[in-house]
Structure formats: structure tokens, C-alpha cells
Amino acid sequence: MSYSVSPIGILRSCFREKFAIPRQPHLAPAARGELVLLPPFDQPQALEGLEQVSHVWLLFLFHQALEAEPRLRVRPPRLGGNRYVGVFATRATHRPNGIGQSVVKLEGVEPGRLLLSGIDLLDGTPVLDIKPYVPYADSLPDARNALAPEPPPAIGVQWADGCLQQAREQALRLGQPLVELIEQCLAQDPRPAYQQPAPDRRYGTRFWDVEVRWHYPSPHCIRVVEIAREAGHS
Questions:
Q1: Which of 115, 113, 29, 104 is nearest to 59 (CA)?
Q2: d(CA 232, CA 165)
Q3: CA nearest 63: which of 132, 127, 1?
Q4: What's residue 200's pLDDT?
Q5: Domains of the chain in sequence order
Q6: Average pLDDT for 163-182
Q7: Burial code of 141-176, b = ≥16 C-beta within 10 A, e = fewer?
Q8: What pLDDT is recorded for position 80?
Q9: Which is the most buried residue in 6, 75, 140, 173, by most CB within 10 A?
């Protein structure tokens, strides 16, 4: 038996590339986006009462990681990228049906769209459903997860001369907390855990339309070395 589902909206996100997206929601509170609802769910009736909710669950598709053959075991980054565990013991993007879930902060409800923060979704992600976060049911103080018992340790983020000022200028243009977003995402060390890059090797990604480049002057420190608006924009 098979079923089909259709998105109720598309997420417009600050994350334009998969690399450096936080591996869990709320690890980067400055990560912002908006969920643009599709008809008929863009009607006001569908959102009635949602203004009384502070956080929502998003059910979505990992649309750039859909696979024809299901994986029974995966190598999650949190375990170093070299250790296999069962797919259902992880939140890896390689899901049997490509479905993900994240709890995000609801910053505002506007006609046809939701304003969100603390997101961990790629720009263009199809969203399948929205459910209100219910604190007394969804927050379980006695819950445990021995595979991921606590947040990953943060590493230091430094700025090369002039880069911080450039980031601040781009933040003003965008009207977004770009500096905080860069620091919060890079502090989680987006490189694969098994990599030990040479100090001069550069990594990069895009936040909104801003290209960010960095390297690792030491194993436990990131240095931002380039901030530039995406090519093709003036």
C-alpha cells in the first residue's frame, strides 16, 4: 500500500546551502526564515488561533536527500561520521520516506505566511504539516538519549581584519542578524568530524545571499576570512 502527500508550504530560509546548517533546531537562534503557505492553506481560517502559540513543529521533506533505496544503517556526524547505527536511532537526513521534523519558534503570523526563527531547514524545503508545540506533552524532563546526551561543544570563532565590519554592513542591508547567525553556525564546527584540515584549507557556504569563507588556524578555532555578497548581485 502506498500513499502520496503534498506540501502545504515552502520554507524560505537563511540557509542557501546544506553545509553549515545546524544539525538540530535552536542551536542557532539567529537562523530565520518564513513559511510561505500554498493554497488553500494560505487562507486566514487555517491559521486561526496560532497567534497563541510560541513554537510549532514542522514536518517536512529532505528534498535534496531523497533516495530510491532505503538505508537501514547510517553514520551520523554526531558520532564522528565513521560509526554505523540503525537509521531509526538517528535524525539523519537519509530517511525511509525523506521526512524530517523540527520544533521552531513562531515569531509572527501574517496572511499566508509564518515568520520563524531557530530553524535548521534549507531554503526551498517543502513543508508537509504544522503542529503546535504543547509544552506539557512535548517537554519530557526524564527523557534520555545516550547517543546525544548534550549539545555539541562550541569552538571559537574569530574574524579576520575587516570581515566583521563587512558582515555588519551586510546585516544592515538584509535587516537580519547575520553576524550572530555566522557565529552560532560556525561555532558548531560544520566540517565532518573525521576531517583534520590543513590550516590553509578554506571552507564556505551562503547565508541569505552572502558568501562566507573560513579556515581552521587550529583544530579548535575557526577564522572567518571572507564576507562577500553573492556574485551577480550589486
A1: 104
A2: 22
A3: 127
A4: 87
A5: 9-138 (2.40.30.70), 156-229 (3.30.2310)
A6: 97
A7: eeeeeeebeeebeeeebebeeebbebbeebbeebeb
A8: 66
A9: 75
- Spell out the SS3 assignment of the chain: CCCCCCCCEEEEECECCCCCCCCCCCCCCCCEEEEEECCCCCCHHHHCCHHHCCEEEEEEECCCCCCCCCCCEECCHHHCCCCCEEHHHCCCCCCCCCEEEEEEEEEEEECCEEEEECCCCCCCCEEEEEEECCHHHHCCCCCCCCCCCCCCCCCEEEECCCHHHHHHHHHHHHCCCHHHHHHHHHCCCCCCCCCCCCCCCEEEEEECCEEEEEEEEECCEEEEEEEEECCCCC
Residue 214 forms beta bridges with which residues?
203, 224
pLDDT band at 232 (very low <50, low <70, confident <90, very high): low
201: pLDDT strictly greater than 70: yes
Distance in Å from the first CA to the final CA of the chain? 52
CB contact at 8 A, 65 and 74:
no
Please write the tens of the pLDDT for every residue from 78-102. 666 678 999 999 888 888 899 999 9
Q: Are 32 and 176 in contact (CB under 8 A)?
A: yes
Q: Is 53 left (phi over 0), alpha (psi -120 to 50) or beta?
A: beta
Residue type, 111: P
